[in-house]
Each structure stands twice: as structure tokens, then as C-alpha cells.
Amino acid sequence: MQSISDIRREYNKAGLDTDSLTANPLDLFDIWLQNAVDAKLDDPTAMTVATVDSSGQPSQRIVLLKDVNQGGFIFYTNLGSKKASDLKQNNKISLHFPWHMLERQVKVCGTAQPLSVAEVTKYFFSRPKPSQVAAWVSQQSHPIATKQLLMSQFHAAKQKFLQGEVPFPSLWGGYRVIPHEIEFWQGGEHRMHDRFLYKLDHNQQWQHQRLMP
Questions:
Q1: 175 appears as a binding residue in the annotation
Q2: Which residues are recorded as binding substrate (predicted)?
Q3: Is residue 150 part of a domain?
Q4: What's the structural domain count of the chain?
Q5: Would you please indicate which residues are annotated as catalytic (active-site) residues?
Q6: Are 198 and 213 within 8 A, CB to CB?
Q7: What pLDDT digit, counting tens, does each position of 119-168 carry?
Q8: Is residue 92 part of a domain?
């Protein structure tokens, strides 16, 4: 068996220089996200969401990005979940987009702001009906004895809501991540990767600088 310490490869798909940067990092993120979609990557909107609990313990999980605009990055979740519990105590958050096949990654640091009821309601009713039902059944992050019990509850809820509209669950919510730092990483040969960090200055203007790999 090959030692994992010997697993390596060269990164040579592209480079990143100042001529490729945009004044606002969200514009560059839009370009990179579209590149990931066009490349037909599996789950191009998948991102690692990192939060910290009251003891200072970080926690990560994969969540799908559902929108991004000049206001920030948007995702939805059960408000009874661990991530929501963490964010209630400490709204500092980090996102990470691992576009390995393009030899790219993006890291976002910011704060999470709860979305309005109108925003989360609109998105909830745009979801497929089985996903709406699942939001009612799953008490996210809570223990359950067996998968069979969970599926039994899911099928019972499907029958209950079979003929009508699935009502909006009170524990359904979402967050807008308002960034103050965004880093773009492009793999380079001989580990000479390209890294650019954007940060908001005291005037809320984006400034960027190259980082050593």
C-alpha cells in the first residue's frame, strides 16, 4: 500500500495574477463559480461551513450554497441544528469551496445574519415536496435510534400532506454570510500556488494582496 505521505501531484491547469482580479471579490467569485458549473463538477455549490460552539470547539459540515449576491452568501438550514445553535452564540463563520478538479479553492470569513421570514418562506415553497416533508420530519443533529424509524416518520408525513400544501415549519430558516475576507487559491507548479486575499478596510472598501503559498 502506498504511503499517504507519498501521494502528490503537480498543479498546472492555470495561474492567477493581478490582471485577472476584480475590484470586488464577489464578482471574481461569480466567475469562478460559473467556471465550476460549466466544468460540470459534481456539486459545484457545495461548501464547507465552519462554526464554533460555546466551548470554542470548531465544527464543519458540507452545505449547499443557494444564492450569492453583493449582500453575501446564502444557505438554508434547520434552526434546531448544531450549526444554528453555534451561530446563535457566535455568528462568526467561515466557508470553503473546494473545486479540486479546477485546482482552485475559495475561503470566506464573515458573520452570519439570519434571513427574514419572507426570504426563507419563498425558498421553502420552491423546494420539491419530498424535501419540504423532510424538513418537518428531521430534527437535524438530534439522535434517532434507527434509520427505519426516521423513514417511517417520513412516509407517515408524506401521507399526511399528500393532498395539500406542506405547511411552513417554524424551525426552517437560513443565513446570509456577510464577508469581510475572501481568499482565492489557484494551484501552481512546484507548490508555487497563487493566493490573493481580499479584506475590507476601515472604509468598507475591498483591498487585496498576494500571499505566499
A1: no
A2: 8-11, 66, 123, 127, 131, 191-193
A3: no
A4: 1
A5: 191
A6: no
A7: 999 999 999 999 999 888 888 888 889 999 999 988 988 888 878 899 99
A8: yes
